[in-house]
Structure formats: C-alpha cells, structure tokens
Design goal:
binds 4'-deoxy-4'-aminopyridoxal-5'-phosphate; three-stranded antiparallel β-sheet; alpha/beta; Aspartate Aminotransferase, domain 2; Aspartate Aminotransferase, domain 1; 2 domains; about 40% helix; globular
Length: about 375
C-alpha cells in the first residue's frame, strides 16, 4: 500500500534536487566555515552565497540574515532576545497573539516568570486578529509585538503590515513568525514592515533543523545561543553548512515554483472537500483569503485522535492539531482561541497538502475519511 502523506504543515519531504546541492557540503567540503584556511574558505563560500540568496529572496541585506537551528530557535530568539533588549529601554511589556506556535508561547511564558508582563491578542471565529485589539493593548511600556503571518492549524493569514505599523507608532519592535507563510507566499520584509521574521527550511522541502531569523539593521536583540563569534557574534555554534546551502536552494526553488504549487494545492483542497461533503456535522476552519494548503476539520461528536489513528491504519497521515502538540493530550489552543469548547477542539484534525500530492491521493483520502467517520459514529 502506498501511504498518503497529508501532513505538510508538520514537515515536508526533502526535495531530491536540494539534497544533491547539499551533498558536496556533507562529504568533500567538510571544512568549518570559520576556519581561515582553504577548507574553511570553501565552506564559507557556500554559506556566503546562501546568505546572499536568502537576503535577496526576502528583500533584506545579507547582514540582516541570521542562521539558526529552525523555527523554534528563531521564535525563541526573537521573543526572548527582543524582550531583553526592550527592557534595557525601559519597556517590559510584550504582546503576542493567542494563536502563536508553542515556540513563541513558551518563550513568552518564560519571560512572564521573569517579571515581564504579557498580553495576548484574541482572534475572531475565523482565527483573525484585529488591528483594534492590538491598538487597545499598546502602552508606552510595550517593547515587542509578535504575531505569526500564517497560522499552522488553520492557514489564517494575519494583517501583518497593519499590525507592524501600530507597533511602530508606539515605539515597539514587531516580529512575525513566517514559518507557515514561507512555503506559500513570497516574503518581502520591507513591504511587510517587520523588524524580525522567522522561517524554517523543512516547511518548504529543505532540510530539518535549519532556519533564519531576519533582524533589521539597527534593531537590538540579545543573543540566546552564546559561544563563538558566528553570525556576527549574535549566535554561536559551528555553521551547519550543508543545511544552510540546502535552505537557500529550497527557498529559491519554492519562490520560483510557488504560483504553480499554490494553484495545484487549491485544486487538491477543493477535491478533498468535495470528497467529504455531505458528511453530517462537518465543520471546516479557515477559508477565503487564507493559505489553502492547511485545513482544520471537525466532525461533530467524533474524536480527532481516533480519526488520526484510524486514518493512519488505513494509510493516510494527517494530524490532530499541530504536530508538535499532537503527542500530548491537550486540545488545540488555536481552536479554543477561535471560540471552540475543549470538547469541540478535541474533535479537530488538520489536513495539509503539498506540491507532490495528487488528485487521486486526496480523493482516496477523503473517501477513507468519510468511511472512518461513519464507522466511528456507529461504534
Ligand atoms: N512556527 C510555526 C508556525 C510552525 O508551524 C513551526 C513548526 N511546527 C515552528 C514555528 C517551529 O519550527 P521548527 O520545526 O523548525 O522548530
């Protein structure tokens, strides 16, 4: 049986073309990029061109691109490092959306324990944040505002430019977690007006364990990973050369193929939704204007975890909420922020499509899902 993978928001497969570009840096070109000799220079050549390419794709300057171990580290760094720097300016209040990834929420909880005050922006029933709700919470002590560009459970798109403007008017720094946006939209840090932005390579067919934090020139952020002088003294650790080379190549290919991929994915979503239409008590979260690759669904009265297990047995991989949370028994904080009760949130599953899925696969997955819902309802 060919398994059907519908969990691309959790991670994507590494593109073979990208692997080929990484391989020389995992074998012959093994120098430490910071070594001053020939081996080091060759490795640094790969790192420099990766940094240039990523800067160009994000409309940033190369010295505004910082390599990290992924989205989690980038989120942690932006929020913790940004808040520590803000405190030195007398600002000890931060604002996050209630639907941020756990990597951001946990960073804020740590800050709160250290004495920072933290406010959370609510979302409406479609998972969107309003400019007014941010405006109402800004104070002269607010140092940092963090709102993700695209939510990882619903695909909901946030008005980043507008929110960044509000933060700036009050003298705060604005960070966006663009981990789920990067696979589906071209990111221009200037057009978005953000001070910091995070991406993670494994969400756009690049390697796992590699990400970027963009930090606009002049924006103050304290380092989190201390050690050597890598990343202009702000992030210690020997550079993962193969991974950053792969990330740059993956981002470049992703931007180049994005519109065709998005078009295909929109069709896949439609085929899938048609396949499950007619099932009683179906609720779909996320929709018009949002990223179509990510879909949260609910079948009234049916447990999401039961659906995920049964689909897995039938050869289809989806998740119950975010992948990072699905190992725990906690209901999704995103769905609850959108007004669902705990019981309702436990009924949600997330289906996320990728560029290599076929219509046949999603039609089959939808048919299996329909059968499983009916079976579970009878049991
Ligand atoms: N932010 C968002 C929105 C995500 O979806 C993820 C990945 N689940 C992360 C951050 C964390 O990224 P990583 O897996 O690279 O640590």
């Amino acid at each position: 049986m060919e398994r059907i993978y519908l969990d691309h928001a959790a991670t994507t497969p590494l593109d073979k073309e990208i692997l080929d570009k990484m391989l020389p840096y995992l074998t012959d070109c093994y120098g430490n990029a910071d070594s001053p000799h020939a081996f080091g220079r060759k490795a640094m050549g790969g790192v420099d061109s990766a940094r240039d390419k990523i800067a160009d794709l994000l409309n940033a300057k190369p010295n505004e691109v910082y390599f990290t171990s992924g989205g989690t580290e980038s989120d942690n760094w932006a929020i913790i490092g940004g808040a520590y720097a803000a405190k030195e300016r007398g600002r000890d209040h931060i604002i996050l959306s209630a639907i941020e990834h756990h990597a951001a929420l946990a960073a804020a909880e740590k800050l709160q324990k250290e004495g920072f005050s933290v406010d959370y922006l609510p979302v409406d029933r479609t998972g969107r944040i309003s400019a007014d709700s941010l405006r109402a919470r800004m104070t002269e002590r607010t140092g940092l505002v963090a709102v993700m560009a695209v939510n990882n459970e619903t695909g909901a798109l946030q008005p980043i430019k507008e929110l960044a403007n509000i933060a700036h008017e009050a003298g705060a720094v604005f960070f966006t977690d663009a981990v789920q946006a990067a696979p589906h939209m071209a990111l221009d840090v200037k057009a978005l007006g953000v001070d910091m932005l995070a991406i993670s390579a494994h969400k756009f067919y690049g390697p796992k364990g590699c990400g970027v934090l963009y930090i606009k020139s002049g924006v103050k952020v304290k380092p989190l990973v201390v050690g050597g002088e890598q990343e202009r003294g702000l992030r210690g650790g020997t550079t993962n050369v193969a991974a950053v080379v792969g990330m740059a190549a993956a981002l470049e290919k992703n931007v180049r193929t994005m519109s065709a991929n998005n078009e295909k994915i929109a069709t896949l979503r439609q085929v899938f939704l048609e396949g499950i239409s007619g099932v009683d008590g179906l609720r779909v979260y996320g929709g018009a204007g949002d990223v179509s690759a990510v879909l949260s669904l609910r079948f009234l009265g049916v447990s999401g975890v039961d659906l995920v297990y049964n689909l897995d047995l039938a050869g289809v991989s989806v998740s119950a909420g975010a992948a990072c949370a699905s190992a725990s028994v906690k209901p999704s904080h995103v769905m609850m922020a959108m007004g669902l009760t705990e019981k309702e949130a436990r009924e949600c599953i997330r289906v996320s499509f990728g560029k290599d899925n076929t219509e046949e696969e999603v039609r089959e997955a939808a048919a299996l899902l329909k059968e499983i819902v009916e079976k579970l309802r009878k049991s």
